[in-house]
Amino acid sequence: MNKDLNFDKQHIWHPYTSTSNPLKNYLVKSAKKSKLKIDNNKFLIDGMSSWWSTIHGYNNKKINKSIKKQLKNVSHVMFGGITHDPAIELCKKLNKLTSSNLDTHFLCCSGSVSVEVALKMALQFWHSQNKIRPKFLTIKNSYHGDTFAAMSITDPDNSMHSIYKGFLPEHIFAEPPKSQFNGSWNKKDIASISKLLDENKEDIAAIILEPIVQGAGAMRFYHKNFLTEVRKLCDKYNILLILDEIATGFGRTGKLFAYEHAKIQPDILCVGKALTGGYMSLAATITSKKIADTICNGPSQCFMHGPTFMGNPLACAAANASLDIIMTNKWQKQVQNIEYIFSNTFPKFLKYELVKDIRVLGAIGVIELHHNINIESFQKFCVKQGVWIRPFKNLIYLMPPFIISNKELLKLLKTIDNYLKRLR
Ligand SMILES: *Cc1c(COP(=O)(O)O)cnc(C)c1O
């Protein structure tokens, strides 16, 4: 084995990976557009957008240029008592792109942290009104990140709450809606969350949801009426609604934000992942001036959070270029095209007996199998054919960069088909 890869295997801890029995890691030397170049000069077509993030592809000229320009001015400066042009420009853009009630922006350094910030905002919103509301209400199969508070509202089974029991705060989990995005709406889907909300209304600070797409927890797409009904419940009980658009934001589901499918507005919104076009870690928690002022007019007089790298200028410069590309609206055609191709090809996978279900929405395509998949052998097969896809549990899914070509898309689909054919 290559010496460096051997060092990696001995000394570097990769995500969700065993140190005693690590999965194989591939050495990426460079990347361009939709392709990763690995160590033996082989190119892999990327079906994952590096976990939902590199929507405009790798080594994007506009984003590169924006970061280089900022590098000559200032790479980082503290955000306490200081502000800078890239942050101001970014928040102006987010103001324009997100729903009209959202006008107050808190920049932070990762998706999980933006969820922590959203939860703290909700808690402090009630604290400022002399109320203690220590609970959050959410649905099963959700995923909101790996830090403690984010993990506490992530599906109890998927995130292995049992390991951290006694330390993790315990929140309230309703049944997720069964009505699918493209199916008909069953009114009973709202019963579980509605009942739990009524029973715990004095304790709940906010409901938090991934809108429409339950991502890393399940890869399921639910009916938009669920969101509309939850919004109504939040209004009725005067409870905040937090939407986590870290995976879905910036076009992935065919709308700029997934909440637009349901024509609702969140009280607090989390964005991350594709915000910088997948270049750097940056996220934002966005709320209304009214909620922000309520927090700050309370006894603590300010919001108690301040990450060291808050509003990092290089990350803001990457985000500004990425949002400029978004604002040309080319993503709409690109995502529609990916959805069209997925809708025409994914149903064909149902002919294989080991396939339980297929789902397509925007630039996301999912194959659910009856059994868990062997990741290592699947990846070996894919890499041999020149594609990069990383499944989890019993799910093989694609969420390619928006700029992917039809030829590359068909290669991804062909590879999955060849794999399923082999397993048959
Ligand atoms: C990825 C993700 C997060 C966590 O973001 P990180 O940047 O990985 O911390 C939170 N919520 C959702 C819905 C995500 O997909």
TrEMBL record:
Annotated PROSITE patterns: AA_TRANSFER_CLASS_3 (PS00600)
Cofactors named for this entry: pyridoxal 5'-phosphate
Amino acids binding substrate: 51, 143, 273, 306, 390
Pathway in which the depicted protein is active: Cofactor biosynthesis; biotin biosynthesis; 7,8-diaminononanoate from 8-amino-7-oxononanoate (SAM route): step 1/1
Site (Participates in the substrate recognition with KAPA and in a stacking interaction with the adenine ring of SAM) residue list: 16
N6-(pyridoxal phosphate)lysine: modified positions: 273
Reactions it catalyzes: (8S)-8-amino-7-oxononanoate + S-adenosyl-L-methionine = S-adenosyl-4-methylsulfanyl-2-oxobutanoate + (7R,8S)-7,8-diammoniononanoate
Entry keyword set: Aminotransferase, Biotin biosynthesis, Cytoplasm, Pyridoxal phosphate, S-adenosyl-L-methionine, Transferase
Oligomer and partners: Homodimer.
Family in the record: Belongs to the class-III pyridoxal-phosphate-dependent aminotransferase family. BioA subfamily.
Protein name, per record: Adenosylmethionine-8-amino-7-oxononanoate aminotransferase
